[in-house]
Structures are given as structure tokens and as C-alpha cells.
């Protein structure tokens, strides 16, 4: 790393062509070497991974045998359409304290109650590296087991990898990935087919879209989902996964089409004019635009006959300079993030909202991490999980959060306790998770047959 610093090399992983342009061929090649290999977990072998999978499958079978009747999730007969929106830098800065603004910046989302599940989602990145959150969500793997600073889409997804998309495709869904920006960003045009998406839509496919700061805005992004729905065959279930661009970083500049309409209460007029406070107010204004666009999307599907589930979550919080003005209102600065894991975790918290146009109940989830969220979605949609998703659902009962920087354990009193990785116990079942994740991502030649791909009902324990 000292060589990288001394040579002034660009260490930001975005697209290979950018890295090669900034560092040169030799420099880019050398800077990528440290991300090439994932360290093999202690005790790893194909047989060890298979044994963990078999134990999980056995527990699932025993649970089925002792459970009487069907759960609400398991009783869904119609396959619902599933729309997942990973919204760029979408977060609720009230995690730092309940500050006041000139008007609500999430009025619709705050008002959603019926057939809605909301919660705190914990991610492994902050201020950037968007693709790592979608990797965790789509695959169930965690960044916790990859080299710090790596981007899975660029270093490790080199062949077909089981994902939510491939599983839903096996269940009969049409699958589509959407991103209203460049196809090459984070290698998405290469990775998405390997994850099992049937179709891809990028910037050039969003015709006549309205924009904000040069990016396709959320209203047009969501309209594209409606377009896919209206153009599909009646009764054919659709899974669409969209990564938005409207709220992308760069809030300090002056824009002709973005003004800080949302004002933060608590600053005097001089402070209100500071570049940093205005940047935060512009960010909150963008969040309000997302809220309005999401309201329009929900209102549309509220009136559709086909069962439909919509999940929206943030990929990460904005950069610290956006969060700092809110923290200052409570007498804090960025240094507090280093005082404890409970303070650090606030910077990796984003909201998720799961809504359906039919009865799924309503709930509040205190803590869940991105690697668990797709399995949770499958459960709420009443669809069969893979063996891996079922394993992760069970693991989440013990460890509801697993991220690159910390994890959380479920306590006997129902609370959630956060820990730094140095606190991990030697006999933790998280080590089993690491072995399975390694088998899934890094040992594809010996990947456990069926466990990561197939419906849990079709997977059997190895004799």
C-alpha cells in the first residue's frame, strides 16, 4: 500500500478502463493483484461445505415435519410480480437524531402502514461502491469474507453465479436488470447475464426520460418498471431489479434544476448559507423527489389486478460531509464514529420498504443486513427458497446482521447487540457461513450441487 501511496496511484475501483487510464497498464495490474484471491477459510474443503449444507437441509426437513399447517408465506398460490429498487444513496439521516426540517422529506414513506414492512438495513459500504450492496443482496454472500476494498463484480464474478435472478428464472419468472446509466459501470453488462438476468436495460434504453443534474430521475426510472409490466404477457410473473442514479453523489455544485427546497431547522442564516449545509439540504431535496416518485409507483400498482411486491432500499449513505451537518445539530462530529461500534454502525444504516398490493401484513424490522434481504423477500412473497436462502434465514435468527465492518447477535431479551469482528468467538457459526460463501463464489468447480440454485423442496441431503 505504501508503494501505491508514494506513486500517487488511483485506488478507487470503478471500471477497469478508468483504472488503466489513471494508473497505466502496469500500475493498474499491480493495484488489482491484492484483490485477485480470496483467502481460503480455515477448515475449508468441499466435504466440509457439503456437511454444513447437509446439516442445514436436515434441520429444514425436521422443521417441516414438526410444523403443522401452512404459513401465510407458503400458502401463496399466485406468483407475484417482484420489483426491487436499489436506490442510489437513499438513506434516512434521522438515524443520527430526529432533526427538524422546513417540510417532511419522506412524507409518503413515513405514512405507509398497510401491507408494508419497513426496517433498518445494514450494508458494507458508505458513500460509494454501490455494486457491493447489490452483490450482497442478489447472491446472499457477504463482503465480510472478501478482501477489504475489493468490488466483487470486478474481481470475483468470472463465471455463472447463483443469485436471486437465476432462482426466480428457474421458478418461471422473466427477469430483467435496469440501470439508467452506463452499461460498463461496475462491469454490470458482463455480470448481470452471469447472475441469470434475461434482459438488461441501460441509459440508452430510457427514452424521453426526465433528468435531474444530468441523471435520469427516479420518476422516469420507476416509469420504466411500469412500462415493463404493461408490455409483459398477462399472467407471466416478472422480476425486475433496478439500480437508480438520481441521488448520486455530487451535491455541492450549483445546478439549474436542483435547489435546496428542504431547509434544515436549527442553523442561523449565516450557517444556512454554508456550502456544506446547502449540500445536505440539496441531498434531502433529492430524497423528497424519491419519496414522491415512489408514491406514484405505489399508487399505480395499488390499482393493478396482478399481485405485485415492491421492495426499495438504499445502497449506502451519502459521503460523510452530507451527514456531518445533521450530526452537528446534536453536538457531534465525525470523530464519534470511531468511539464505538454502535456509533460506527449508524453510518452503514439505510432504510428498506417492502410493500405489496395484497395482504402481507405489516411489520418493523429492527436490523437486517443486505445478504439476508433477498431470502426475506422470497419468504414474504410466498415463494420457495433455495437451500442457501433457507440456511441464511436460520443464521439470521442468531446473527441478524453480517457486514464487512461489524456483525450483530440476537440477544435473549430480543434486542440486537453489535460487535466488531475482533469480538467474534472461535466456535461461531459465522465460520460455517464463510465456508459456504467461499464454496459458492470461489470454488465453482466444486460448488455444492443444487444447494445454491434449487428450490429447497427439490434439494436432498447427501447420503
What does this structure look like?
By secondary structure, the protein is an alpha/beta fold. Helices cover 38% and strands 14% of the residues. It contains 16 helices and 13 strands. The strands form three sheets. It has an eight-stranded mixed β-sheet with strand order 4-3-7-1-8-9-2-10, sandwiched between helices. Helix 3 (46-66) packs across helix 15 (387-398), helix 3 crosses helix 16 (430-442) and helix 9 runs parallel beside helix 11 (275-302). The protein is globular. The model is unreliable at 1-7, 14-20, 27-31 and 68-76 (pLDDT under 50).
Tell me, rounded to a whole number, the average pLDDT: 90
| Low-pLDDT ranges | 1-7, 14-20, 27-31, 68-76
Q: From N to C, what is the helix and strand string? A: HHHEHEHHHEHEEEHEHHEHHEEHHEEEH
Radius of gyration equals: 22 Å
State the total count of DSSP E strands: 13
Distance between the termini: 48 Å
- Which structural class do you get from the secondary structure elements? alpha/beta
Query: What is the share of helical residues?
Result: 25-40%
Tally of contiguous helical segments = 16
Biggest sheet: strand arrangement: 4-3-7-1-8-9-2-10
Describe the largest sheet. Answer: 8 strands, mixed
Shape: globular
Percent in strands: 5-15%
Brief overview, please?
This protein is of the alpha/beta class and 463 residues long.
What's the SSE blueprint?
Blueprint (H helix, E strand, L loop, with lengths): L1 H6 L8 H18 L12 H21 L14 E7 L19 H5 L4 E7 L7 H10 L12 H4 L8 H7 L3 E5 L9 H7 L4 E3 L9 E2 L2 E2 L1 H14 L6 E6 L25 H4 L2 H28 L5 E7 L5 H9 L12 H4 L4 E8 L6 E7 H12 L5 H12 L2 E2 L3 E5 L5 E5 L9 H13 L21
Parallel strand pairs: 1-7, 1-8, 2-10, 3-4, 3-7
Antiparallel strand pairs: 2-9, 5-6, 8-9, 11-12, 12-13
Helix pairs in contact: 3-15, 3-16, 5-14, 9-11, 11-12, 14-15
